[in-house]
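Work Package 3 (structural annotation) set out to generate three-dimensional models for the target panel prioritized at the project kickoff. During this period the team completed the workflow that converts sequence records into discrete structure tokens, so that structures can be stored uniformly alongside our sequence database. As a representative example, we reproduce one entry of 375 residues exactly as it appears in the project archive.
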Amino acid sequence: MGSLTPSPKTWIETPLIESSALSKAAGCRIFLKLENLQPSGSFKSRGIGALLLHSLLTHPNPHRVHFYCSSGGNAGLACVAAAKALDRAATVVVPFSTKPLMIAKIKNAGAYEVVQVGDNWKEADTYLREELLKKDEGGVYVPPFDDPEIWEGHSTLVKEVSAQLQEKGEEGADVMVCSVGGGGLLCGVLLGLERERWGNSCAVLALETEGADSLHQALAHGNLVTLPGITSIATSLGATRVARKAFELSKTHDVVSSVLSDAEAAMGCWRLADDERIIVEAACGVNVAVCYGGRLKKLLPKLTPESKVVIVVCGGSNITLQTLMAYRMEYGWIEGTITDDEEVPSTLSAPTKVIDEYSKHLGWMDGDEWYEQDQ
């Protein structure tokens, strides 16, 4: 299998930009691979798009194919978007815990049907397999991350980065940063690095959040670990057990696994919004958070000001302005861990700065409400 170039396109080539703000904050050259601009709003358009295309090319009756996915998150949205591009139907089964916003987005993307069943993903997936998929001869199951065709699709990201760096007159990257849920993106990145022959010169920083750190725990224990549950706000990283392929590749490649807090992931979200006008989920914010407060240099002390670090801005659709503001209110204290640098724009708009300035005019704050001083 080689890298895929699907036709019709189920994903797009996304821009690679060098961020002056994040570079200043991190002390090295930061490039952002904008996977948030994919048709579904996340990197999953690549892998799931590749899987759907492969299914059509290999199915005995491609005109009868109907795709089924049990993810109420970004994988489900990517499945529907890709199926629509391929002129096929896609049904998504989600648990009752799925937020109305995501259900509305999946429907709006063109889902044939969205079915709510069960209290969790496992129950929704069981219903899909036993009640829907078995009864449809043209039915094709779409997993969220654990499939070789999905990894193939994700590997195209590295090929694009290589070509885009060359266009800028640059050699390969020194580090690639990606978050890890089930491990599909990590598998694709590592396989892509092998193909571009960066494997010995480019490290991969694999990031998770506390309460969704199945890869980190697996590497620490030396074998796959199943988490008792997901307690992080970064629900898109919510795989209780990382894919075996991701675990195996991480042991044979230059992978640095690290776990950040929910507060740090949230900080990455509002800092990216303020510095680059990009809004992403906490599952992506964790990638950006390492640029602030010396975190990246602590994890990778050999980095120099000329080191090139590519951050996969994986995106995600389960984010609103209201959620972002709630993050700022709940986790704003994390800004106390970041040294002020007024050359980084987000320093001036950090929650603590805003609250301090606002309090000068309004007086005092009680809970979530502001009260003006008597005039």
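The CA atoms of residues 129 and 208 lie 29 Å apart.
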